[in-house]
Amino acid sequence: MTANGATGDRPGRSGRRPGQSGAREAILAAARARFAEAGFDKTSIRAVAADAGVDPALVHHYFGTKQQLFGAVVQLPVDPELTLSAVDAAPLDRLGETIIRAVLSVWDSPAGDGVVAMVRSIIAGGDTSLARSFILEVVLERVRQRIATPEDDGRLRVALVGSQMIGLLMARKIVGIEPMASAPAEELISAIAPTLQRYLFGEI
Amino acid sequence: MTANGATGDRPGRSGRRPGQSGAREAILAAARARFAEAGFDKTSIRAVAADAGVDPALVHHYFGTKQQLFGAVVQLPVDPELTLSAVDAAPLDRLGETIIRAVLSVWDSPAGDGVVAMVRSIIAGGDTSLARSFILEVVLERVRQRIATPEDDGRLRVALVGSQMIGLLMARKIVGIEPMASAPAEELISAIAPTLQRYLFGEI
């Protein structure tokens, strides 16, 4: 696990008007509780601020957007916005390839170790509600908005994409199934991108 | 976790000629150590029997084949042979569909809870060597033998199949990504079987 959010902890201190580092901790604790209880969509910065006894502007000051606050709560080792903006910008006929290329570039980077540690701890902990909320409401929702049509909301399609990406992470980084664990990224991209493209746009 | 292998444990008892229940435990302990150290392929019933101080015939008597002994060591809640024999019998043009159909029928059965518990505990425990050995050398190897050609040993192909099946297990049973978590099995089979078939026989 990464250490962000663990700095400035003062166990003996509490109250409605906490100091600077106490406020940061109070916001994180309130956000963790709200996100776990209500999920990403139904949690507002305003409600988190009220629970923490601070002004909403202070939440934005410390953590930025609601998505970045969520990233701090689940202790994401990387800013998901970097990957998601690549997905937003991709042409639709290369959306599958863009997704696997962007995701592999994070997992195969030094920051990938943090992702693996996070996934392990989520699964081991037993409470997968935050992970589910993050995958469904932040990551897959961004992809879904790009493919939804009046006839098909795209929910099953993006869930299928998510399942193949989770399986790739497990095979490459956690269980270590050869030759996927050590294959060059380009080999996996050419094998898996057509799967994702079919899940997103093909006959399913 | 299931309780097989945990019966008849007598902590105070040991020795080169253990009694009936002690022998069973000694065989399991020896097999666990050998499989973890050397993997499935390089472990022999003879070596396990020697380590446990019993006759190889007694190992077969208690546990059956080496694969069944392995199943007892990793506390598999189901006999993998039931699924694997379906894979052996499938026509090649329906191999992908057969795999996902057989696997889903186990996961969606009452025994599936045991599979989920096993996967969780393997990931949480950190030591994935037994899981890797089981997936690679028992399950995927049986599929690989059906698709290997002189030009392509099929290792990457079956690993890709494994990654999609692990991802399906995670999405449906562990993280709970809707609508995959509650979709009818037939809907998932029709969406995913073509992926597996392409991984096994198509352009990758």
From TrEMBL, chains A, B:
Pfam families listed in its UniProt record: TetR_C_16, TetR_N
Domain HTH tetR-type: 21-81
Record key words, sorted: DNA-binding
One GO MF term attached to the UniProt entry: transcription cis-regulatory region binding
Region annotation Disordered: where it falls in the sequence: 1-23
InterPro entries, A to Z: Homeodomain-like_sf (IPR009057), HTH-type_TetR-like_transc_reg (IPR050109), HTH_TetR (IPR001647), Tet_transcr_reg_TetR-rel_C_sf (IPR036271), TetR_C_16 (IPR041678)
Annotated region of DNA binding: 44-63
Ion transport is among the record's keywords: no
Keyword DNA-binding tagged: yes
Top-level taxon of the source organism: Bacteria
Matches recorded under PANTHER family: HTH-TYPE TRANSCRIPTIONAL REGULATOR RUTR, TRANSCRIPTIONAL REGULATORY PROTEIN
Name of the protein described by the UniProt record: TetR family transcriptional regulator
Species this chain originates from: Nocardia tenerifensis
Lineage: Bacteria, Bacillati, Actinomycetota, Actinomycetes, Mycobacteriales
